[in-house]
Write a structure and sequence with these properties.
heterotrimer; A alpha/beta; B alpha/beta; C alpha/beta; A: alpha/beta; Nucleotidyltransferase, domain 5; 2 domains; five-stranded mixed β-sheet; 10 strands; 18% strand; globular; B: alpha/beta; Rossmann fold
Chain lengths: 328, 159, 233
């Protein structure tokens, strides 16, 4: 079965062809390929203008996969959550294709798509497993029951973890994206030099919060502008990752976990990888982290998940709409 | 433009201020369409929005930062409320490029726009709320609006 | 008009999603055979394809009968235009039929040619943000030519530009007229106004005039950028 995927939920226009739910025949991401289209220089404003990229990534992906629409069994498209206008471009392109080619249309939740990137990798976790989705827009801990069903254990109540990295980096005068910058800077800093607060909730929730940490770091920097930035970065980074570990530990107190996955762009953070690898080892947990290309926003995960939804008989009508938030 | 200043001494008070603004908007339909929220990181803009949306029965935990996806829509019985964050956008073209004006001008809709000072947009029924960091807890908050709107806000908030 | 354009026996679909209306139409051999007008506000995404399918089925056409599309690329609603354009891009990727980009003003004067007796024709549309999109056309023989670049102007500036030509005769079409009236700015008396609430043309008009308005050129369909700050690449 061949399913094509379209993902335009935020900054990137992406198109993919996936066979049988796991063989990636093509996975085109605009920020990586548009360079060549514009001769090396990406115009500042072209990034989010999906209407200019969508036909291009589609043609390129179909060619790379050496298929035509006649070979396609389903069209999967992200329709939630995301920036509404961005979603609408991908969604309506998909609808046009579905209508014209008489091909089933499947609306896909971007968040579940991230989890599915585990199943596009050579070694995939068996169900059920515990998954982290950590990115600029997400901080989710969930139990994955099968390809299409997750149960949220905890999610952020304010900022996403990747967002905290970006904002602190920018506030201290470094660039964007902040993840790699803080990661690198932290290597020359002392992670135990400053004690930043961890969130506490009155209930027993396993939710996350990064707004308090962000504000604490900014306050510290405002009051102590002469402190080594590397120390601030390292102490922040350690706390940010500790917050994840604390909730994971609390979950382990109640439940058995033998498999854990991390998806989303923050999975590239070296301190996170080191900490999670150690933690997993000490707790007899097998850790899964897909390749970086699959961890960031991409259409292959959408096509893959779309395949599984289609196998379950889930299809959408051509009236399908786009939603900025999780469910609706 | 007229302005008045008030001070909040905790997150909770900033939250309540947002709630009171929502009550005010509800009791005077059409009075305010856009809230331009200005202030540095960690000054309470999102908390204000959480308070505002709590008046429409959205949970605190439902209102999370829109920084990454830029715009979130909250649907209520009779209107959409948009929580927008321009933090990641820099040029007017980039702001134009997310189609923001279609939402700002949607009938009945109310928008709360963090980093809204980046918007080059004049609308009669805008209120500007400026958050200033004093220390860990204290925030000076300045509310600016055109005369007619201002009078109503001042009267309602001072009681 | 259209004398030098070859009569087409092709089935052309006209589409406009640039305003709160969804306009669809079918033309065959330059004859409008069917059209659809729906006030959908901001829900084009829900109605566009079902509307198109309804039109085809209702006229005993199958999808494979369609030879091309004429689509309004603006000026107009940011979201609406992207919904229309993305849908058509998807369809033409599958069918490999051409899409012809047309500007709404170009369709408007063609659809009203018999009624515009003045030298100047202004097509004015609600541009939101207290501005109007202004397209200024001047008569040349039996057709009209766009005189200046399309601009977004405030109400007073719109009146000023209209006034500067009204001695030579001016006709207005478009929903901007009502906005000017509501703004209480006085329109000069001698101006001719063609009233109507669908901005001067239907979906059928788009289909019928597509070849003429696009000069028969199927091209890259992209939204029309009007404001200075609009994204360009």
């Amino acid at each position: 079965m061949i399913v094509i995927g379209i993902e335009t939920s935020c900054d990137d226009t992406s198109f993919a062809v996936v066979e049988d739910g796991y063989k990636i025949r093509a996975n085109i991401i605009s920020s990586q390929t548009i360079h060549s289209k514009y001769g090396g220089v990406v115009p500042e404003l072209a990034s989010r203008e999906h209407i200019k990229n969508i036909s291009y990534v589609f043609e390129k992906g179909m060619k790379a996969a050496k298929i035509t629409l006649k070979d396609v069994d389903g069209i999967a498209v992200t329709n939630r959550p995301g920036l509404i206008v961005s979603l609408l471009v991908g969604l309506n392109f998909a609808k046009g294709l579905a209508y014209a080619g008489r091909i089933p249309l499947i609306g896909v939740n971007h968040t579940l798509g991230h989890i599915y990137s585990n199943h596009l990798s050579k070694s995939e976790p068996e169900f059920p497993y515990i998954g982290f989705i950590l990115s600029g827009g997400h901080t989710i801990l969930c139990k994955v029951h099968n390809y299409t069903t997750i149960e949220v254990i905890g999610t952020t109540r304010d900022d996403a973890i990747g967002e905290a990295f970006d904002k602190i980096s920018k506030f201290m005068g470094f660039g964007y994206p902040g993840g790699p910058i803080i990661d690198k800077l932290s290597k020359s800093g002392n992670p135990n030099s400053i004690k930043f607060p961890r969130p506490r909730f009155k209930d027993k929730s396993l939710d996350f919060s990064y707004s308090g940490l962000k504000t604490a770091v900014l306050n510290y920097y405002r009051k102590n502008p002469d402190t080594s930035k590397a120390d601030i970065a390292a102490s922040f980074q350690k706390t940010a990752i500790d917050i994840l570990i604390i909730n994971l530990k609390r979950y382990l107190e109640k439940e058995n976990v033998s498999r854990l996955s991390i998806t989303g762009g923050v999975s590239a953070n070296s301190y996170l990888r080191k900490t999670m690898t150690e933690f997993s080892k000490n707790n007899n947990i097998k850790l899964f982290i897909p390749s970086h290309e699959l961890c960031t926003d991409n259409a292959a995960m959408i096509a893959g998940l779309g395949t599984r939804l289609l196998e379950e008989g889930k299809k959408d009508t051509l009236k399908l709409d786009a939603y900025s938030r999780g469910i609706k | 433009m007229k302005k008045f200043k008030l001070r909040t001494s905790s997150e909770d008070e900033t939250f309540q201020l947002g709630f009171r603004f929502a009550e005010l908007v509800n009791s005077s339909p059409g009075l305010v369409k856009n809230f331009i929220l200005t202030g540095d990181l960690g000054c309470g803009k999102t908390i204000f929005v959480k308070g505002f949306l709590s008046s429409f029965e959205f949970l605190k935990s439902e209102v999370t930062s829109p920084t990454f996806i830029i715009l979130k829509r909250f649907e209520t019985a009779d209107r959409n409320i948009y929580h927008i964050d321009l933090y990641r956008l820099n040029s007017p073209g980039e702001i134009e490029g997310i189609g923001i004006y279609d939402f700002l001008e949607e009938d009945n809709a109310i928008s709360l726009i963090e980093w809204g000072e980046k918007l080059n947009y004049n609308s009669d029924n805008s209120v500007k709320v400026v958050f200033n960091w004093i220390d860990e807890e204290l925030r000076d908050i300045t509310v600016e609006a055109e005369n007619d709107i201002f009078k109503i806000i001042e009267k309602r908030l001072s009681t | 008009m259209g004398l030098e354009v070859q009569a087409s026996n092709k089935v052309i679909i006209g589409i406009d999603t640039s305003t709160e209306f969804l306009k669809l139409g079918i033309a065959k051999e330059n004859l409008i055979i069917s059209e659809l007008l729906l006030k959908v506000k901001d829900s084009h995404t829900r109605y566009l394809l079902s509307g198109l399918n309804f039109l085809l089925v209702n006229n005993n056409l199958v999808r494979e009968d369609v030879d091309g599309f004429g689509i309004v690329i603006g000026p107009g609603s940011f979201t609406g235009l992207r919904i229309g354009l993305a849908t058509i891009m998807g369809i033409i990727s599958a069918w490999k039929v051409p899409a012809y980009p047309v500007m709404s003003g170009d369709i408007a004067w063609r659809a009203n040619l018999g009624l515009i007796e003045t030298k100047h024709f202004f097509y004015i549309l609600d541009g939101k943000r207290k501005e109007l999109f202004v397209m200024h056309y001047v008569k040349e023989k039996n057709s009209f030519k766009l005189k200046e670049d399309i601009v977004a102007l405030n109400y007073q500036a719109t009146i000023d530009i209209i006034k500067s030509y009204y001695k030579e005769g001016v006709t207005l079409i478009g929903n901007g007229i009502n906005i000017l009236r509501e703004s209480k700015i006085k329109l000069p008396k001698k101006i001719k106004i063609i009233e109507g609430n669908v901005n001067g043309f239907t979906g059928g008009d788009i289909a019928k005039f597509t070849f003429d308005a696009s000069a028969g050129q199927a091209g890259k369909i992209e939204p029309l950028y009007v404001r200075d700050a609009d994204i360009r690449t």
